[in-house]
Amino acid sequence: MKHLLTIVLAFSIGLSAIGQPKMPTDSVIVTKHETTIKGQNISYTAYKGTQPVWDEDGKAIATIDYTYYERDGISDRATRPLVISFNGGPGSASVWMQIAYTGPTLLEIDDEGYPIQPYGIKKNPYSLLDVADIVYVNPVNTGYSRILDKDAKKSTFFGVNADIKYLGEWLNTFVTRQNRWPSPKYLIGESYGTTRVSGLALELQSNQWMYLNGVILVSPTDLGIDRSGPVEVALRLPYFAATAWYHKVLPADLQQKDLTDVLPQVEQYAVNELLPALVKGGTLTQAEKQAVAGRMAHYTGLPEKVILQNNLDISTSLFWKELLRDSGYTVGRLDSRYRGIDRKDAGERPDFNAELTSWLHSFTPAINYYMRNELNFKTDVKYNMFGPVRPWDNSNDHTGENLRQAMAQNPYLHLMVQSGYYDGACDYFNAKYNMWQMDPSGKLQDRMSFVGYRSGHMMYLRKEDLQKGNEDIRNFIKASTPGKGVPAKY
């Protein structure tokens, strides 16, 4: 049930000088809602708004679109956690986690995440809103966020470190406006959003003097941690094995086991045997090379001949094309449970990402309907599922080290990583590798945790993992919220 409450700031949609729809610089629409989460009736307020990005002279050069959900009836916000949510791309809107994971509204899909018609939305009975308030932020050129000043340099926004810097300033203003400085704060990012929030953890701490209780990385990127050469090749193997197991193409001795019994065996082989063999490169004898190819074939479901033809280095794109080639299908990149059909079976990479086209079926109609009809945000500006943010400056990406520094400097700060076993873009074993390399001393391990799910990049699209993933975050928030009077010290 939704009621329009008020328009807090003037909200007018006009046209820019060149005739394009123009977003308001600073505005908010407030609506009241009710839902049921984990069997508990909950009323909440949704703030759908825009907030400026200012330059050093105080001029508004861009406006950031956000949705902020606040549970009603909370007498003490100082003890109530605030979750700040970003998606990735880097040109992707926050739509994915907003209406499919942690938010109070859920898009209509089947229990495995596939589109169904009619497209639409429903209430999310697993949302985090029972335990935390949540804000979903759309960086510049994603969602409804736009650059306002035609003379503003794009380098102000579009780069690893530029992105972190301006969003840190923006969050300072947001937290101040909402009077949330005393609250425990959490950053959650998905995909490139994990790069963003890892960098923000230190940026907020160092330049905004804002300290966090937790960072949640959903399907993390490499966080600027090098893994080129043999390490990169070896780390792919467990993901290949998981996907092959799902499609039932592994040998019987592996296929009859549960996935979580198969993967530790493959992980051990990848690190302890495959990696040393790959380091030897061309000095491997033919017999040694044949033996490695045989083991790789056993764990991946790929023909041994193909592995040898590629000198033991199977790219992910070739894997997606090759695994089900004889059946006439490709497998998805972000979620390898999805199958695609190419123009021809030959070739070294799929024609398209089978999972992404499937997801856009569901998400695009749902978010556009939701913004206009439930949040009463009416505009002719296009909601950018993916916005123009190129060229993106990827130089000096030290975000994994940034997160380590933030954790070292803040004894309250905890980390949780969530990964889907069938994610081929940001695979689960590379996520584990991040955690190993971020903390070479091992002194932060008691504040780091990893959870794997039987799905892909957006593990929450699978109903079972939607429920489990949210519950894992609830438990993480509980574990990382110190008792009253417990000091932050080593």
TrEMBL record:
Keywords assigned: Carboxypeptidase, Glycoprotein, Hydrolase, Protease, Signal
Gene3D superfamilies listed in its UniProt record: alpha/beta hydrolase
Domain of life: Bacteria
Single GO BP term: proteolysis
UniProt keyword Protease, yes or no: yes
GO MF: serine-type carboxypeptidase activity
Name by which UniProt lists this protein: Carboxypeptidase C (Cathepsin A)
Organism of provenance: Parapedobacter koreensis
